[in-house]
Amino acid sequence: MHLPDLGDIHDQYLALARLACNGSRLDAEPGLGGRLLLRVGFDAKGISVLIAAGLAGAAALCVDSEPELLREGLRHGLCDFLVADLSEALRILKNQIRQKRAALVCVAADPERLLAEMAERGVQPDLLSVEISGALPAAAFRERGTMPVPAAYADPETERVMWSVEMEAVRIMPRLAEIAAAALDEGREDTAARRHWLTDAPRWLGRSWAGRQCVRMTSSEAGAFTREARAAFPTVSISLDRRRS
What we know:
The chain is an alpha/beta fold. 45% of the residues lie in helices and 15% in strands. It has a six-stranded parallel β-sheet with strand order 3-4-2-1-5-6, with helices on both faces. A two-stranded antiparallel sheet has the order 7-8. The longest helix has 15 residues, at 6-20.
């Protein structure tokens, strides 16, 4: 199983957060509660989309033809449920969508057949993520209003700031997240979304990214975070990997 880059997950989340706000200011915690996202393929891109969707509040269904790959994802906490067919998946998803709660459901099935069954049964996803449509009946969903999952968002005014700790991550990482959140500019429209990421991302990332975190920051925000983080933890090695994209 190939895991995506942590920064790619973060940027995909920001794209979904912008979509949730319909282009308005991101001055409240973003939410896609009540929306269904369909992903074809549990590869690195798929994992990135699923985690970002869960963090944004959506219910997500991922289909992949390799059951062992999905079982590995379940063991690593990268999905909430692994089921054998569409009916079982819908029983879970309908309840989550009705309550506007996030859930990541994976089904081991042939993608072409499962999408055809969804179209036949009138199951209409709100968002669709698929790399190569080919023979997949994805066009039918688009014709009925399904939107493509937006590409990962990279604000040119920001850079990825990444940090990690080797020891006492359970104690130190939440404090570093607080320092990072405090360093964010209140005047930026994406600050609420970035703070939501810092607060809630660990629950969705699980142990696969334990001791690691990142967030997009402006140069001034990154400087403030670096100073405060190093002052709070002078003996801890914190690596900052700054990349524009």
